[in-house]
Inverse folding.
């Protein structure tokens, strides 16, 4: 009887350890930010910065923690929302990798902000260029509004 209990306890312990290992692997995959390609990194960065307003998440997609031009744009959008008493809908459109050389890449994207102001649907779009570096995944290092 003692041998049977020892074998059952050993099997249960192995099943529990296997379950913990599986849970850790799934958690790691789910919580790791997707920086697999330059365009995906830009989209995720803009979603975190402009849509979610989550600076900690945005830092996961940048080279040095901040991209001043995008931070200024986000502050400008927030100021306009407050001034007009509306909430802008932000869409990231036409994201295209225009150049990749080694660990450097350039991405062009359109950032569109839309809102209904005084009952009239209005929309503004700006084209941006993002410079990225592949540092254990693609990261946004600089950005500039074009035109």
């Amino acid at each position: 009887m003692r041998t049977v209990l020892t074998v059952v306890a050993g099997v249960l312990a192995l099943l529990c350890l296997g379950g913990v290992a599986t849970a850790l692997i799934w958690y790691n995959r789910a919580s790791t930010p997707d920086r697999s390609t330059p365009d995906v990194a830009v989209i995720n960065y803009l979603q975190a910065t402009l849509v979610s307003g989550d600076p900690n998440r945005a830092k996961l997609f940048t080279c040095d923690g901040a991209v001043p031009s995008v931070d200024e744009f986000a502050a400008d959008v927030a100021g306009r929302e407050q001034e007009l008493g509306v909430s802008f809908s932000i869409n990231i459109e036409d994201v295209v990798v225009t150049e990749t050389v080694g660990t450097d890449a350039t991405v062009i994207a359109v950032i569109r902000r839309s809102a209904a102001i005084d009952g009239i649907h209005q929309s503004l779009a700006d084209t941006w260029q993002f410079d990225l570096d592949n540092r254990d995944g693609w990261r946004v290092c600089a950005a500039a509004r074009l035109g």
About this structure: The longest helix spans residues 2-31. The beta strands are 89-101, 104-117, 120-134, 138-146. The chain has four helices and four strands. The two ends are 81 Å apart (CA to CA).
